[in-house]
TrEMBL record:
The gene is yajC. The keyword Transport applies. It comes from Hymenobacter rubripertinctus. It is a single-pass membrane protein. GO terms for cellular component: plasma membrane. This is Sec translocon accessory complex subunit YajC.
Length: 105
């Protein structure tokens, strides 16, 4: 009889408080994981939409080049004189400032 009394849960507002940690964890996950990822995705989409000719870019594969032609879906990147490669816009990772390296003396 004593064991059955221990297994019974009290009725009332105590059951609502048991959901509070789960709700709190969901809020933390949203603000620290989901929301920042959505912001990064929106920023990347804006960047790719604003690409222009002459921009120095890096692809997701690490290939550096200069944008020479654009269409709605693709970007043509010149990686060397006369070497042009066509990529999807989603393959452009970031824009770089092209710096010429000077050899050390």
């Amino acid at each position: 009889m004593f064991a059955t009394l221990l297994l019974q849960t009290p009725a009332g507002s105590g059951s609502l408080l048991s959901y509070l940690p789960i709700v709190g964890m969901a809020v933390v996950v949203y603000f620290f994981m989901i929301r920042p990822q959505q912001k990064r995705s929106a920023d990347a989409k804006k960047f790719r939409a604003a690409l222009g000719k002459g921009a120095s870019v890096v692809t997701i594969g690490g290939l550096h080049g200069k944008v020479v032609d654009l269409s709605d879906e693709t970007v043509t990147v010149e990686v060397d004189k006369g070497v042009r490669l066509r990529f999807d816009r989603s393959a452009i990772a970031r824009e770089t400032s092209l710096k010429t390296a000077t050899p050390a003396a």
